[in-house]
Amino acid sequence: MLTYLNIASLLGKLVALMVTGLGDTTMKILESSVSQTKSPGNFQSLNTWSRHVLSLIPFVLHKTLPVVQRPPSVSASTTTMVQSANTHLAISNTFVNSAVNNTQGSNVADQTKARPVLDQQVATTIKFKVLLQELQGSQEICPMVGPTANNSTRSSTLYLSQSSLQLLKASVSTSTKQLYLRSYTLLHKFCAKQNVPFSLPFTEVLICNFIGDLFQQGYGPSTITSHVSAISYLHKLFILPDPTHSFIVRKTIKGTHNLAKSGDIRLPITKSILIKLLSALHHTVQEADTRVLLSTIFLLAFHAFMRLGELVARSSVYNTKVIQRQDLLFLDDNSVQLILRHSKNMKDGQPIVLTLAANYFNPQLCPVRALKTFTSLYQHKSGPLFTFKSGHPVSHSFVAAQLKHAIEFIGLDSSKYLGHSFRIGAATEATKNGLPENVIQQLGRWQSNAIRRYIRINAFRL
């Protein structure tokens, strides 16, 4: 007699055999997404698990059925549009590449039927260079921007007006475009590695395998979710069905959370949070000199991608291991040099020399200015750089406690913002500003792919 568990098991094997397009890593991640329901303990959970497996079957059948070809009744205007897509679909200075059907036929009826829906054939002609042109600010003509003087016969209703175009441009910030570009770069590399075309629309299987590849490289669940969100944005902009919301993609993402090696809940102290923390010190710390000391530590930890343990010691045993006063050198009014003699990833024991530049655009966040103010108040010539006026080195626990008070003052969860959050925030902020991963790796002195665990980019709000 077949039980629900037998049926579910058989269905599971059937689905596993049918989903041949998914990679091994992707399958492992997908399997982990249902780990809590693999061993049901009652009738209801058995039934739920069976339905869970059954729900995959429409997707599998859809993927295994042959693609239905477009009937021969496609209008000539669509054919013309396909031929001209690569030359005319040059995107301007925003994500305005959701190209409206740029129908070019002379048939008035064809123009009347035109919809702002990207034809699938046109979508497949969109290559990576078009995205690069858009993200880097191409000034070529966009088919959404309306007819030129030499082409005034086209209906103006097929185009975005200049005012609506400006509004669409304003909806995407520069930093967000940099993040999208990073996501598309990773996807383009993956497609090239898999020898599959980089063209819209992307299939659910390709996206799942992309997720599996990112996870295998060491990317965290939140970062992977952000890259998937960028793909979602692209499909929505082209008015295409969004494959990222499919059941199998959502479950694959869930699997990355279930299989994540660490439950690191530390959040980044970004530039905006750092500004709030510096202001909060005026309310949480009474002594002005101590505020200067803490502000300098905060700014140095952020701008130099430093671990808190490299600045202040956890115990007196490590007082000689933190940065020393003689390791600080002002090169001129515009920069300062720091020498790290003890660091986690030091090669062959060779000191690491860091140079920080002044920030004249935002003096409140300038590390050089902060260090000058600090050294004018704390004039010791030897020992740990951060020392109280009494001569006692500043301890790690003191800084952690003061950070906790400031975090709570600005209304954030102090259990998620710790000393290492400055380093995490620096990596995250650098990524938002478009710095390449290898450059960030050098700035933070990371080895291999460890940097990817530090970049915390929330899923894009679409």
From TrEMBL:
Keywords attached to this entry: DNA recombination, DNA-binding, Signal
One of the GO BP terms on file: DNA recombination
Domain Tyr recombinase residue range list: 268-462
Organism domain of life: Eukaryota
Signal peptide: 1-16
A GO molecular-function annotation: DNA binding
Record keyword Oxidoreductase present: no
PANTHER family the record matches: P CELL-TYPE AGGLUTINATION PROTEIN MAP4-LIKE-RELATED, PHAGE_INTEGRASE DOMAIN-CONTAINING PROTEIN
Name the UniProt record assigns to this protein: Uncharacterized protein LOC111103402 isoform X2
Record organism: Crassostrea virginica
Lineage per the UniProt record: Eukaryota, Metazoa, Spiralia, Lophotrochozoa, Mollusca
Gene: LOC111103402
